[in-house]
């Protein structure tokens, strides 16, 4: 089992040449085999948390720790974090000019394997075919340049293809549901559910409860004003949907 532990994490960003504290002490423990969801209103720091875990330099860790199996993640480069088994599906997936999807996927898989044990072309293509079929994707999409000219839905689907191919220990999926129609949402959810295993843990970040009808989390955390203010099971997402964040604010006596 692997564990990702976030301890009293405080993170700031630079705004108008001043530091503004966004995360104000986040505590969270993810184990492989578990599905966690973070919900919360816009602008509360959900993406800040995922960007910080992946090492985006725009996010400045003021204090606190992130440990992957006891190892200090904050000392690792973005590359090292990916090789250690983290995967981040970004809210706005990047286009990378001149690199095809297939080239990217092979490189990403091989980066996580020892030099003398790189994946063979045959094994790679077999794995690719299996996962393309899982996601109702065509081979031609895999041959295209990474995310270039992809629609919003295709980009999200492609992120899930990467997830299935790379088989990380932990994935942080930031708003993979935004802008998806119901069919694309189901395909994405199917892909994430296909990852389920004792060796895989996921953190799903979403505004809406809808995605959680398809990917049922073990834990739901609510983030408000840079902190996790409540943790519950999947039912918490339904309560939020019914009562809104305002209801929770009242319940907790928050004035944010
Ligand atoms: P959420 O994902 O919950 O909607 P974010 O983490 O994206 O929230 O943003 C939290 C706050 O931090 C917002 O006020 C946002 O404007 C600010 N913020 C996020 N990223 C940056 C950045 N790179 N530079 C400046 N401000 C940022
Ligand atoms: Mg947002
Ligand atoms: Mg966000």
From TrEMBL:
Please indicate if the UniProt record lists Nucleotide-binding as a keyword: yes
Q: Where is the ABC transporter domain?
A: 6-250
Name one matching Pfam family: ABC_tran
Q: Check the record and name the SUPFAM superfamilies matching this protein.
A: P-loop containing nucleoside triphosphate hydrolases (SSF52540)
Q: Does the keyword Nucleotide-binding apply?
A: yes
What keywords sit in the KW lines?
Answer: ATP-binding, Nucleotide-binding
Family in the record: Belongs to the ABC transporter superfamily. Ycf16 family.
Q: What is this protein called?
A: Fe-S cluster assembly ATPase SufC
Naturally occurring in which organism (per UniProt)? Lactiplantibacillus songbeiensis
Identify the taxonomic lineage of the organism of origin. Answer: Bacteria, Bacillati, Bacillota, Bacilli, Lactobacillales
């Amino acid at each position: 089992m692997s564990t990702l532990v976030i301890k009293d994490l405080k993170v700031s960003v630079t705004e108008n040449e001043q530091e503004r504290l966004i995360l104000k002490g986040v505590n969270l423990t993810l184990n492989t085999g578990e599905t966690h969801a973070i919900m919360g209103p816009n602008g509360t720091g959900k993406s800040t948390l995922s960007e910080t875990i992946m090492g985006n330099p725009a996010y400045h860790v003021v204090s606190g720790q992130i440990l992957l199996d006891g190892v200090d993640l904050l000392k690792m480069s973005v590359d090292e974090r990916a090789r250690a088994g983290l995967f981040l599906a970004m809210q706005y997936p990047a286009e990378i000019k001149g690199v095809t999807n297939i080239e990217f996927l092979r490189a990403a898989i091989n980066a996580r394997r020892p030099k003398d044990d790189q994946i063979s072309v045959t094994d790679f293509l077999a794995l690719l075919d299996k996962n393309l079929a899982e996601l109702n994707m065509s081979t031609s999409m895999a041959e295209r340049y990474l995310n270039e000219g992809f629609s919003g839905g295709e980009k999200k689907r492609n992120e899930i293809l990467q997830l299935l191919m790379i088989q990380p220990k932990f994935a942080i999926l930031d708003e993979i549901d935004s802008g998806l129609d119901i069919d694309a949402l189901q395909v994405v959810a199917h892909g994430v559910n296909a990852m389920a295993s004792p060796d895989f843990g996921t953190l799903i970040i979403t505004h809406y409860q809808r995605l959680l009808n398809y990917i049922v989390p073990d834990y739901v955390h609510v983030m408000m004003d840079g902190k996790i203010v409540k943790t519950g099971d999947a039912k918490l997402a339904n309560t939020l949907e019914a009562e809104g964040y305002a209801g929770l604010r009242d319940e907790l006596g928050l004035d944010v």
